[in-house]
Amino acid sequence: MLPCCPRVRSDGISGARSKVSGIVFAPYGMVWKQQRKFSLSTLRHFGFGKLDLEPKIIEELQFVKSEFSKAVGTAFSPFHVINNAVSNIICSMCFGKRFDYEDEEFRTMLSLIVRGMKLASNSPAMLINIIPLLQYLPFGSFKEVAQTVKDVSAFLKNIIAQHRKTMDPENPCDFVDFYLKEIDREIQKNQSTSFSEDYLFYIIGDLFVAGTDTTSNSVLWAILFMAAYPDVQERVQREISIVVGESRPPSLKDKVHMPFTEATIMEIQRMTTVVPLAIPHMASETVDFKGYIIPKGSIVVANLWSVHRDPSMWQHPDEFNPSRFLDANGNITRNEAFMPFGIGKRICMGEQMAKMELFLIFSTLLQSFCFKLPEGSEAPNMNGQFGLTLSPHPFKIIPVRHQTTC
Ligand code: HEM
């Protein structure tokens, strides 16, 4: 099932909900383990969480910078460019291609996913989790969710079909090729296997959706926070100037020398918690947690947002203060209550990749541009809109070339 369709992870308990597949909402068990392991190792082959991915991200950032350059001095919404760029990074690993920012079909796909994520967690369609038959209702958000799933499914199935036609087993080029090769290998061994084209469809849906909306919202929040806190923006830019300069793009190797930039990204992630309730879990055993009995089969929702705003763990938790992540020597300091990617066995599979993307996108944009709020505009709404992810309300900023006045 696609993540833009509402559901709950069943953690291995039988019943209607355990039929879901993929990784994000797969029940805990052998199939989830096998599929997560295969996906991680194949994506690592393409540089996932490693320096090899850096050139791909830097290449995509050239397109982003070119779009931002066209908007210099004007009030501009960065939503579409950022969403498309982030999606392209995952698409190039999974499907072996990027999509032009003007590609109408892909634009529609991205907006369907954003809409689907909102409906999935903030509309009557959420009830599909409890009464699956509701997905067949021909009106309102039920109908919209069904149509969204249908359209996104058609897009992904078409990609798999094209790969089936063109794939060279001796020379697999992307995640889909590798997965198709694995299916053929397992079939040849004549083993019963969880690898199938159906499962592949769910996995690429997961990677495509989980890898786009989360990171893209984090980048959008980062742009908005920089426009709202010009003093922090200036300090990040000073660090970029000293460590990277202007003649080359920032690299992951610079990160260790840029603690304030890293602390700023962490503080933006803490303040915004883009996956505020993680993914719903289900208790696979009855447990006694601090005197509360949680019966087997209960849905357990981890409120990461509240952990990030807990006054017993953070001083003045509602204040934006990147320095809270720095020690007296200006080095990064960790806080165990910082968990934007969740914790435990089901921790985000894309954590390493997301951290790379956030650092490279944030530092590359700030190397070239300052972001300002349009004059006379209302103070931006920093609370966000709730879906499966917490996204900023639509906003416009003015990019200004960094070399000139900020
Ligand atoms: C800033 C970006 C991101 C944030 C904040 C984020 C956050 C999260 C969170 C909170 C979870 C749920 C953890 C839980 O239920 O306990 C999750 C799961 C997941 N994420 Fe991410 N994520 C991000 C980017 C990505 C990317 C780039 C990918 C892949 C390309 C990805 C793939 C996944 C997958 C596959 C899961 C399910 C893991 C499992 O159930 O085994 N995420 N993410």
Automatic annotation (TrEMBL):
Species per Swiss-Prot/TrEMBL record: Scyliorhinus torazame (Cloudy catshark)
Example GO biological process: organic acid metabolic process
Ligand binding (heme): C348
InterPro entries hit by this protein: Cyt_P450, Cyt_P450_CS, Cyt_P450_E_grp-I, Cyt_P450_E_grp-I_CYP2D-like, Cyt_P450_sf, Cytochrome_P450_fam2
This protein's name: Cytochrome P450 2U1
UniProt subcellular location: Membrane
Protein keywords: Heme, Iron, Membrane, Metal-binding, Monooxygenase, Oxidoreductase
GO cellular component, one term: membrane
